[in-house]
Amino acid sequence: MGEAIRMRDKGVQFKQLQPGQQIQVDLKNTVPKFCQNKIGQLTEMGVKEHTCGCELFIPAVKVYTLSALLSPTGQELTAQQPVLVCKQCGELLK
């Protein structure tokens, strides 16, 4: 995000997406994301810590409840946030 701000400050123009418009990205120019969660594994020598390293993530939804006292409508509200969970260790993608 900071790079985009620096580029905008230098005068680089960014296209605005129209509703429903999709971005075409060549995956050859991307870097894969791996789970960075530290996992402890029990061995004969003790506990060995290593990074999970899994590259598969499952979409999930975090659910939040807003108290009626804080809600602008005066009624309890429920909000959702999409997240990705590591398929191997179950940690949220950071």
Which terms summarize this structure?
about 90 residues, mainly beta, two-stranded antiparallel ribbon, flat
List the helices and strands and how they pair.
Layout lengths: L1 H8 L28 E6 L2 E6 L5 E10 L10 E10 L8
Antiparallel strand pairs: 1-2, 3-4
Evaluate the radius of gyration. Answer: 21 Å
Determine the number of helices (DSSP H or I, runs of at least 4 residues). Answer: 1
Lateral arrangement of strands in the main beta sheet: 1-2
Largest sheet: 2 strands, antiparallel
- Round the mean pLDDT to the nearest integer and report it: 86
Q: Secondary-structure element sequence?
A: HEEEE
> Unreliable stretches, pLDDT < 50, 5 or more residues?
none
Q: Which class do the helix and strand fractions yield?
A: mainly beta
Q: How much strand content do the residues show? A: 25-35%
| Alpha-carbon distance between the two ends | 16 Å
